[in-house]
Amino acid sequence: MQNYAACINLTNSARSVQLFKIDAFTATREKGQGSIASTRTSVGGYDWVINYHPRVWFSDQYWIMFRITLDSNGTGVVASFACRLVDVVDQTGGGQHLGSSSSPVPAAITSATLSKGQANDVYITTRSKLASSGYLKDDSFLVECVITVLIENRSPTQDAAAAAANLAPTTTSAAAAPPSDLGRHFGELWRNQKGTDVTFLVSGEPIAAHKCVLAARSPFFMAELFGDMKEKASQHVEIEDMRPEVFRALMQFIYTDTSPPELQVEGKEEEEEEDARMMAQHLLVAADRYGMERLKIICEEKMCADISVDTVSTALALAEQHGCSELKARCIKFIVATPANLRAVVKTEGYAHLIASCPSVVHDLLLAIMADRHK
């Protein structure tokens, strides 16, 4: 069975995730088409302004629109801007999670090459569709905005200069500093549970943590525990759509910034390898949900190294749903590599689920097949 080696990331990027709560939706219908709120953030070495436009006339309807503007000196800055509605379930006391609305609205994304003062707009949904969806609760709704900035790779000349600088003689102190043990200390804090101030009920299982640690590591937890969401004043947060072992692995990474041992397969039995494969899939979803970009890449690399007829359909569906471009490319390449691969994948249950959940992938597969035939 053919497998690919671990992913090699050929592009560098910086990413920022912001979660916004929008109140008084009904009242904003009286506003004009301008921005009524804005915030600033820094991504990829550049300053950005995010503006909220509650009522923009576009394509014969009024839309909810967000705009990013480059506010730093620079030209040719390549960036993407994605926005999606976040569903908060049971505002009065239940758990919260993403995308469970009975009328799901897909994420909207756009990209552009910008200079200082230039902007890019994302039209999330129409006002009428939002008003009738499950995302609007008590005249409020949540929006997650993601800015991704492409960072140019250094040229070979720049790499050679950097290597030469690293080889240059330097003055060292008599005693070298030991490696950082910050992760070890925070890992001990997580394990001994001292000073915890929030408990997550994950599918009914209590898991305690420290609010400040979670907020420092995750923009979602920052908004949930210290923003305007209802969990700010609560010491208990319900999460019904995640397995406890997945949430514990997420916590372990948050506290230590090291790859969870549950992802390691070396020296394990076949059943344990399957557990590691499933953990990578679930952790990728959790990492995307909580804005843990490094963990998301770790899981993506693990899944890239484990592509086969049995796993490729599930991996491709997750790549499409959670914006993993490298994993998606590897999966498509595997499927169209040979006619035998394509026939075998189409016969799997995972492929049927892929087509049902991500029909747009069919178009990408057809394009890849046509491109392969014209080589």
Oligomer: single chain
- Tally the helices: 13
Biggest β-sheet strands, sense, barrel: 4 strands, antiparallel
Mean pLDDT: 82
Straight-line N-to-C gap: 25 Å
Order of helices and strands: EEEEEEEHEHHEEHHEHHHHHHHH
CATH class of the largest domain: Alpha Beta
Q: What is the helix fraction of residues, given as a range?
A: 25-40%
State the CATH superfamily name of the largest domain: Potassium Channel Kv1.1, Chain A
Radius of gyration: 23 Å
CATH architecture of the largest domain: 2-Layer Sandwich
Helix/strand structural class: alpha+beta
Q: Spatial order of the strands in the main sheet?
A: 1-8-5-6
Family: Belongs to the Tdpoz family.
GO biological process, one term: protein ubiquitination
Pfam families: BACK_BPM_SPOP, BTB, MATH_2
Domain BTB: 196-257
